[in-house]
What does this fold into?
Amino acid sequence: MSDVLVLCYHAVSEDWPAPLSVTPDALERQLSLLARHGFRGVTLTSALADPPAERVVAVTFDDAYRSVRELAWPILNRLGMVGSVYVPTDWPERTEPMRWPGIDQWIGGPHEAELAGMGWAELGELADAGWEIGSHTRSHPRLPELDDDRLDYELAGSREACEAGLGRRCDTLAYPYGAVDERVLRAADRARYRYAVTLPQALHSPAPLHWPRVGIYHADTRWRFALKVSPAARRLRSSPVWSAIDGVRRRVRGI
It folds into this structure.
């Protein structure tokens, strides 16, 4: 049975309590569950380029935290899987911790070291091992807030920087914060990306430059993860009913 599942992770850590971090044990447990249910771990491009005749999972990691290489890579290796990493290209080779709204609260605290990003050599090791390395823009902005010139700088510029840093094609993009609108989609097309992924509350109908992912976080217990990845739950999250429920929820919370 054909099934394409695209997951979004960020950092991996034994003790970082950030919402975007998962423990190595949780990551291995989650991916092992998928493997037992017949999912094969492939790169994003491999998952989306041709309709598979089987179950495939694209395990993506946003932000290119060093912990992905140190902790996630061995786990995926043991399971016979490869992943895809999305790098904000202003950060490789810089020695200071990565920072942007959403993670900068950890600067100066006991978990600051978790904000270390991979350099091009480390990313190249993953690429040599069959992983896909894609763009996460240059500086990790909310793209719909940018003017057209800045959009092109962030999208086309990061693709060029990724190709220069790795000596490989960069065909895929992950929108920071999952933030995207029609103008951003047009800019991604101008920048010649083949595929781009987002992170919606409702799993909208997929398109090459607007492909939905299932976000996995620190709070995702065994049952929550199993529910999130179940075909029934994914069908519900892609339905008009879920969109209506999510709209009510956001109005109540003032989002």
User: Anything to note?
Assistant: The longest strand covers residues 55-62. The chain has a mean pLDDT of 91.
